[in-house]
Amino acid sequence: MFEAGAAWLVADILSDNAARVRAFGLDSPLRFDFPVACKTGTSTAFRDNWAFGYTPEFVIAVWVGNFDGTPMQEISGVSGAAPVLQELMNHLHERCGTSWYTPPTPVVELAIHPLTGKQVHPARPDALRERFLANTLPPCEAATDYDAAGRVRLPAAYRDWFLHHGPSLGARVVLDDADVPPAEFRITQPVSGAVFVLDPDLPESGRRLRLRALAAGEVSWRSPTLRITGTSGTSEAWLAEGRHELVARDARTGAEARAWIEVRRL
């Protein structure tokens, strides 16, 4: 049904325990001592959960939930269905043996830069090893990708992103904005006119909407109809049904920006 190289890459990704470490830790129920492609899923409000695993020999799907449809108490796929999957797959591996898929010819492994995703010399200390289809290789790095200090130069198109997230990368990136005019104060999230739909199955935290704006200084927010909490960098609006106006004010310049949103319920 799918190109062999693409199917192999998906299986390779789903068998990579290191890719799950940030979310599940090193020794989660999805860790195996042999290759297994696996994935979990959790329904809204913890109604039920799933875990799937496969090798060339076996496919296992595990469902955990209450037969009357009532939610469980914060039992997710990794804590509910995954332990069952692990026990079954370990049993099959010990009793029958398992193997892994042979990499198709069009799959190649390259060293890439952790920020740009471009090909770099394999000896580079911070290079990552990734696998690609031979017909979709990333470009090679160029001297123009970096400034004199070795920082990654981001083109002007990244200005909005850089103002919000650039500081978290420290001295690793720099905005190449020599020919870019100063950013106009405006609300970047939410987009004016956006429509949000509240899902009754989501917990109360699902009503929170992060607010963002491009500004020269600290930003204060207000709305005549929505509750707003947090500080300048982490302000959130608590969504409720209706049409609402959001107003952002730049403390340094006094400029204001406005956006309208509509909130509906499923």
Topology:
Layout: H1 4-14, H2 21-24, E1 37-42, E2 48-54, E3 59-65, H3 81-96, E4 107-112, E5 128-133, E6 152-154, H4 159-165, E7 173-175, E8 186-189, E9 194-198, E10 208-210, E11 212-214, E12 219-222, E13 227-229, E14 236-238, E15 242-250, E16 256-265
Parallel strand pairs: 6-7, 9-16
Antiparallel strand pairs: 1-2, 2-3, 4-5, 8-11, 10-14, 12-15, 13-14, 15-16
Mind explaining what this structure looks like?
This protein has 266 residues and is of the alpha+beta class. The chain folds into 3 domains: 4-96, no CATH class; 143-180, no CATH class; 186-265, Immunoglobulin-like. The protein is 14% helix and 31% strand. It is built from 4 helices and 16 strands. The strands form 6 sheets. Strands 9-16-15-12 form a 4-stranded mixed β-sheet, with no helix packed on it. A 3-stranded antiparallel β-sheet has the order 1-2-3. Strand 2 and strand 3 form a beta hairpin. The protein is flat and about 70 Å long. 17% of the residues are buried.
User: By helix and strand content, what is the structural category?
Assistant: alpha+beta
Calculate the terminal CA-CA distance, rounded to whole Å.
35 Å
Instruction: Give the overall form.
Output: flat
- Please outline the major beta sheet: 4 strands, mixed
**Mean pLDDT rating:** 88
Helix content: 10-25%
Low-confidence stretches: none
Number of domains: 3
Radius of gyration: 24 Å
Number of strands: 16
Number of helices: 4
Order of strands across the biggest sheet? 9-16-15-12
Strand-residue proportion? 25-35%
> Can you write the helix and strand succession as a string?
HHEEEHEEEHEEEEEEEEEE
